[in-house]
Amino acid sequence: MKKAPFLKGTKKVLCLSTLILSAMAYGQGDHAGGGESARNNNDKVNDVAVAMNTTKIQRSEKPITPLIPQASEIVKGQQSRVKDGFGSGQYGSSRDGGTRAHDGIDIIVTAGEDISSPIKGNIVRQAVPYGNDLSYKGIVIEGTDEWLGYQVKIFYAEGLFSGKTSPSQKIGTAQNIAAKYKGITNHIHVEVRVAGVLVDPFTIWQYSF
Known about the structure:
Strands 3, 5, 6, 7, 9, 11 and 12 form a 7-stranded antiparallel beta sheet that branches. A 3-stranded antiparallel beta sheet has the order 4-10-8, with no helix packed on it. The protein has a two-stranded antiparallel sheet with strand order 1-2. The protein contains 3 helices and 12 strands. Helix content is 12%, strand content 25%. By secondary structure, it is an alpha+beta fold. It has a single domain, classed as Glucose Permease (Domain IIA) (Distorted Sandwich), CATH 2.70.70.10.
């Protein structure tokens, strides 16, 4: 199947608060359901996120619009799963007959392909895409420095589940999700949160493609 490139975004600087507000329309969880989606609903916003929400911001006559950091590729030449027999892998695409939206973006991979960290941070735990099938795993990264307040969750990847990581550092290998869903384009599923709020993952890659 021909790979489709990431959809191009308008090259404009986005305000962090705009990202958070626009994300409110989307719920928690992943199409995989089970243990990880249930866990998402109970995740506590970390101290960094609380600080971001409660810290007083000095006002100026002109609005201050922070530049969103740009993430490194998770796989070399990464491309998104646009559409196959199982639907679209784009953020916000329909799931479960239109009852919910896709919480992340699917990046095409080959089983066994190296997976790299897109941001600087700490790997804090293993993600669990399916509560009833523990053979599939994931990685959760909490950002540090310029990525403070960001969380990146990668499903269908097996590797490191603790320790510091840097952009482009290998953190695992891709699993074969196509073995579970016959005919689907093999991929990893990536979710991004800012201060605990789900956002479109493409925002942190829009200047890189």
